[in-house]
Write the structure tokens for this entry.
Amino acid sequence: MIFWKGWGIIGVLFPILVALLLASLGFSDENGDWFYFIGLTLSAIPVWFIGKHFNRDKDEVFTNERTGQQFKLGNRATLFFIPLQYYAIVYPILGIIPVFGSN
């Protein structure tokens, strides 16, 4: 089960779309383990910028009239409870593991 909030599903869709794009250009798993590194690194770029855009801090502060509690409203994009932009760091690391892990 995949948990996301807001536009966090982009963290799953972009690697799939980039893999399909690379496969249509002739890259495949037969080209070696670099396919995973290139695909995940290329998908990390838009994930970073989209995550930063959706998770930016907003200056809008609202106050609950009954309790007096203040809170900020904003778009939160998370995947597995982690902000989306942090997957731009995780994806290249996951992509490089097969390169060094194979003989």
Observations:
- The mean pLDDT is 84.
- Helices lie at 10-24, 34-54, 87-101.
- Residues 34-54 form the longest helix (21 residues).
- Residues 33 and 102 are 8 Å apart (CA to CA).
